[in-house]
Amino acid sequence: MELSVEHGSKASAPTTGSHRYFDLNGLAELSGKGTARTLYECKPFKFRHEFAANAWFSRDRILELAEALPETSVEYNLADIPVSQPVTTMPHSGLSLQETIKNIENCGSWVLLKSVEQHGDYAELLDRCLKEIGEKLGLHVDEMLAPRSFLFLTSSGGVTPFHFDPEHNFLLQIEGRKKIQIFEPFDGSIVNHRQMQDFVAGAHRNLPFDESIAERGEWFDFSAGEGVYIPFLAPHWVKNTGSVSVSFSISFETAKTKRKLSTYRRDQTDAPDTLFHEQGQG
Ligand SMILES: [Fe+2]
Q1: Percentage of residues in the chain with pLDDT exceeding 70?
Q2: Options 3.40.47.10, 3.20.20.10, 2.60.120.650, 3.30.830.10; which CATH number does 112-268 get?
Q3: How far is the CA of 168 from the centre of ligand 1 (A)?
């Protein structure tokens, strides 16, 4: 598939299928095998990509996209919140979605656009990214289940509270800087079995953050043109350390992640085929 990628305000010529937007060499170094058949066991790692300052992620495009998506695919709230934030007390600015996006420099907010591939242009972008990541990881696109993409717009200093996501996740920084702290998945002293069961049963992604674990996670700083792989079910939280941040994430499940999640179902005979939980890693 060919993908027309625009830089700045000017569209470039369509690229050929041989062009690569990602440098995922960090994966090969960590896995020792260069294939993401080992992704499930892989640690978080940084990588590079070519989507920084891309017109697909301009403020006008983000506003257009936000208005085109159904309301259920948009979340926004104030961003100056603690790492441990119950969803029931998420604070709001009182601004509309459009006002929030237009004033993101000054309104101290966080905006999440979910499953942006619902919009045709971004479906093509997700397909292209999946194909390239899959080639590097030794996964056929048919093995990358329930693929989705998310776009995050965050004011300076904004926080994404402590949570985890039920899929492999590639988080790309498009504009600005962030730091993320990522913890070991499957560590019962961080997230216990009951919390896992609650999540699989449909509980919100946000988790309580106990200060006793504060030194146990690995920190990554990343800026425009860089990205971080967040392992399946690895708890994490994110802080915007620069001015406005724009991030894009690509996530997918595999047969193995689905099997693992199914072990936390209380009633496995009534389990749905595809687990769908909202995501908030931006
Ligand atoms: Fe996340």
Answers
A1: 80
A2: 2.60.120.650
A3: 10
